[in-house]
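Quick one - first record:
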Amino acid sequence: MARNHITAKDIMERKVVTLAESASLTHAWMTLIEHRISGAPVVSESGELAGVVSQADLLRVAIEDEIEDLPARSYYLDAPYHEFEDGGHFSERFGNTTVEEIMTESVITASPNDNIASLAVAMRRNHVHRLVIVERKKVVGIISALDLLGVLEDH
């Protein structure tokens, strides 16, 4: 398949890890670590895309007042999280806050039929590392910048 004919549906991850709006931040943190991802779409009770939460969002809440507690290389899930890995240290700071309270509501999305050039342009122009692929307001896939690089590598 020629590169200019590749669409989002050809390369998107269909098994998308999502978070419920009502999920606790501790649950969100543990989900991201478990799946080794840096962010996830947030869905409403009806299953529609409501926002997105990233590891950076969660870290920002957890270390608002104590930036010096941030472990080295914390942006990467491979980093040595020490006491942060189990969410225990953050849990006390997360309190009863839900994903809905901190999620980014304006999500950059794409359609399954969008070609890879438009996906790359959307990522670059909006300074995002992932695009949520939606159809009729439902999350049907996700594409990361690494997925686009994989297309270049394969073709």
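second record:
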Amino acid sequence: MLSPLFDPALADKICEAGIVAVLVIDDAGDAVPLARALLEGGVGVMELTLRTPAALDALRHIRREVPEMVAGIGTILSVDQLHAAREADAAFGVSPGCNPRLLTAAREAGFSFGPGIATPSDIEIAVEHGCRLLKFFPAEQLGGLPYLRAMAAPYAHLGLRYVPLGGLTAKNAADYLDDPLIAAIGGSWIAPREGIKAKDWRAIAAHARSARDLADARKR
């Protein structure tokens, strides 16, 4: 069996955090105050999506000025993007789908990487490449927890853990966090794109604090 593709210590840290803020940044200048607002609210893991040209510069600013934030890159769709994320010092990478070329490239680069899965076939491809931490996407649109539980059942003995993204909100987050399949949840509601553009750091810190409370309740 291959060694885990995602660094186990980092995976444990994400599991302990319970919350991953999923972000779209249009201005790299917003990166540092955004990271500090999230940390103020108790959210210490973020995924900066490659949906804007500012994402990698934003990552560099955060890694340099807010090193205590665990900052990764999401929406990785190509090998070139994977290498760019690693070179920008991303803590981890994430893709929306399960592309074997990306998984091979991540292993060759020694880069912690979590593929997106939506079907049993996706899970089997991921497992074949040594993945144990998987992104379940788009979670709610696929059928949410009932679908994930049914799909994951044949692989329960492998100890796989899932990070659902897509359609999660403050209202349904607790249901996911209560399920033992879930390592952590990804939430774009914590720091919505318009809130970042408006530089509403106080509201983002408050959203992060509410998310932190949900994750902490799981541990009690």
